[in-house]
Amino acid sequence: MQVSAICIDRHVGCDMTKKDLIMKIQTTLPDFPKRDIDFAVDIVFEGMKKALSGGEKIEIRNFGVFGVTERESRIGRNPRTGAEVYVPARNAAFFKTGKELREMVNRKPDS
Q1: Are 83 and 77 in contact (CB under 8 A)?
Q2: Span 68-111, pLDDT tens digits
Q3: 21-35 burial, b for 16+ CB within 10 Å, e for fewer?
Q4: Domains in the chain, number
Q5: In DSSP terms, which residues pair with 59 in a beta bridge?
Q6: What global pTM score does this model have?
């Protein structure tokens, strides 16, 4: 398994964080101050949150689709006691990968 060079902070599993994303953009665009990049990333994420909370779908070509789906109410089980528990209806965010991203993620590394 290859570890990404993007992992600046050593997190469990070396996942990319918002801070890592900002630092990666900063290395790609060194002429822009970090605070401007941070501000731009915040604007993008806030716009996405606002769109999703309004029930809108966000489609990014060759990357994927973010959306909201309705989950119906149901009867679940408490895993500890086995007792039935009512789970109310709710909205849930989802992400569906685009074809190009899916192929990139499933590509086998060169041996």
Answers
A1: yes
A2: 999 999 999 999 999 999 999 999 999 999 999 999 999 877 74
A3: bbbbebeeeeeeeee
A4: 2
A5: 65
A6: 0.72
